[in-house]
Specification:
Blueprint (H helix, E strand, L loop, with lengths): L1 E4 L5 H13 L3 E6 L4 E6 L17 E5 L19 E4 L2 E3 L5 E5 L6 H14 L3 E3 L17 H14 L3 E4 L6 H7 L2 E4 L7 H7 L6 E4 L6 H13 L5 E5 L17 H8 L4 E3 L1 H5 L2 H13 L4 E5 L17 H17 L5
Parallel strand pairs: 7-8, 7-14, 8-9, 9-10, 10-11, 11-12, 12-13, 13-14
Antiparallel strand pairs: 1-3, 1-4, 2-3, 5-6
Helix pairs in contact: 2-3, 2-10, 5-6, 9-10
Length: 339
């Protein structure tokens, strides 16, 4: 339910309402708007009717049900886009499009530093790189684990750019949180609800990748798991879904971008690398993603893609990345955004 406060309702009235919400066994989420404050009351569907009595509490304008199954992620609760702070001077969800680039896996100090410096030089905003890798085969390279996180930290120090890296297990949340500026949940963990709940308790933003067979509604329900535990910093990432098409690794569902903009206030990033699996078509799809309203782009890049320990086929060379950045800048400008 959404409790809409009257314009000019006092702080004391807002607190009184949140106490009442919590006394009824719901969690309250206060959202300060420019004009008025709204309070989300989230809890058991069965007890929803109890909240209607709040209609007559001083300062309350209206009590409105949220029709969607996702509540905190929904546009019904929060009309304006959420702007999520990633680092001192970097936020996502506003006019600026955020470029996150780096190798699929962190392999060595030389590899990550060279790549990170290229990201910085071309005007990218964040470094990506996996230290815990969800590989289809248990015999494939699984990532450097904490040693990889330490290398990402070196890359951050060398460039001043924040780092996004994946956590695969609930067991490693504390470790990854210590090194990452943004914690990534991979496609394969989208419905690992225990992991999502744990990530709802941390203070870092979460990049939540869409699963390969996840509907937009299921994806937003996964975001809801994180939000409902108290972490409001969720960034969604479209990375392609499985379809009957075999010409590409996945099918990039760009429809998701404008749909999510309509349904949710959360920022959205597009990852055309995993979505296509093919180096030559990554930039064209990145341009399309910017054109249709994406707030950020995640790209896999590598100093020597043919030698990459994972996802080499879809990794751009550092030169392709620098050139792609120029094109991305032009499209961003054409749609009234900066990069
Ligand atoms: C990745 O970002 O390297 C990755 C494994 O992505 P996804 O979870 O989307 O497959
Ligand atoms: Mn990858």
């Amino acid at each position: 339910m959404i409790i809409v406060m009257k314009v000019g309702a006092s702080q004391a009235q807002v607190e009184h309402v949140t106490q009442k919400i919590e006394a009824l066994g719901f969690k309250s989420h206060v959202i300060e708007g420019e004009e008025r404050c709204v309070i989300g009351a989230i809890g058991h569907e069965k007890k929803k009717a109890d909240l209607l009595a709040l209609n007559s509490v001083p300062g309350v304008e209206a009590v409105i049900p949220i029709s969607k199954p996702y509540k905190l992620a929904s546009k019904e609760l929060r009309k304006k886009p959420s702007i999520i702070k990633i680092h001192k001077n970097l936020s996502i969800g506003g006019d600026k499009i955020i470029i996150m680039a780096g190798p699929c896996s962190v392999e060595s100090e030389e590899q990550i530093l060279r790549t990170a410096l290229a990201v910085k030089k071309a005007g990218g905003h964040m470094i990506r790189g996996g230290a815990f890798k969800p590989r289809t085969s248990p015999y494939s390279f699984q990532g450097l684990a904490e040693a990889g996180l330490k290398l990402l930290d070196k890359a951050r120090q060398a460039t001043g750019l924040p780092v996004v890296t994946e956590v695969m297990s609930q067991r490693d949340v504390e470790l990854v949180e210590r090194y990452a500026d943004v914690v990534q949940v991979g496609a394969r963990n989208i419905q690992n609800f225990s992991l999502l709940k744990e990530l709802g308790k941390i203070k870092k933003p979460i990049l939540l990748k869409r699963g390969m067979a996840t509907t937009i509604q299921e994806w937003l329900m996964s975001a809801e798991y994180i939000l409902s535990e108290g972490n409001p910093q969720v960034i969604l990432c479209e990375r392609g879904i499985r379809t009957f098409e075999t010409a590409t690794r996945n099918t990039l569902d760009l429809n998701a971008v404008p749909i999510l903009k309509k349904e949710s206030h959360l920022p959205i990033v597009v990852d055309p690398s995993h979505a296509t699996g093919i180096r030559d078509i990554v930039i064209p799809m990145a341009l399309a993603a910017v054109a249709c309203g994406s707030d950020g782009i995640m790209l896999e890049i590598h100093p020597n893609p043919d030698q990459a320990w994972s996802d080499g086929m879809q990794s751009l060379t550092l030169e392709m990345f620098a050139e792609g950045m120029q094109q991305l800048r032009a499209v961003a400008k054409a749609v009234g955004r900066t990069l």
